[in-house]
């Protein structure tokens, strides 16, 4: 029998600012999340990473762009076949400058999972709802994301050590 946790609640420590008895933190979970939008993966060579995911899993690039604000060249690889606008992607991120958050991540951790992103119909309302539950929202206002989306990030220390993004699709 494994001693591994059987649910997220067994290994995720809630933010220190919130406790079940705190009257300022709502007791019900927030339901503004609609799906897992993507998993962001930091890489040093975007073209080589695309080739790996294409040859290993058959994933194709659905979108590619350079995001100057975030200092990355990125590719979104669609991982499932839903046609309802709720597809899930791998987001491959190659830094375009040494001072970008992804470059700093690569220096500290090497290549690998950088963040997860949850889709929502209203990123501002979802960020506010999650913030009311004691999670620090890192962006005061939603900002530009991939393919015209609007995004905010949540503090990893409040999300079980995982940098978490909320994303509202432009579609």
Structural overview:
The protein is of the alpha+beta class. It has a single domain (31-168), classed as 2,3-Dihydroxybiphenyl 1,2-Dioxygenase, domain 1, CATH 3.10.180. The chain is built from 3 helices and 8 strands; from the N terminus they run E-H-E-E-E-H-E-H-E-E-E. It has helices spanning 46-57, 101-109, 123-131; strands spanning 33-42, 61-67, 72-78, 89-95, 112-120, 143-144, 150-154, 164-168. An 8-stranded mixed beta sheet has the order 2-3-4-1-5-8-7-6, with helices on both faces. Strand 6 (143-144) and strand 7 (150-154) form a beta hairpin. The longest helix has 12 residues, at 46-57. It is globular, with a radius of gyration of 17 Å.
Describe the SSE topology.
Layout: E1 33-42, H1 46-57, E2 61-67, E3 72-78, E4 89-95, H2 101-109, E5 112-120, H3 123-131, E6 143-144, E7 150-154, E8 164-168
Parallel strand pairs: 1-4, 5-8
Antiparallel strand pairs: 1-5, 2-3, 3-4, 6-7, 7-8
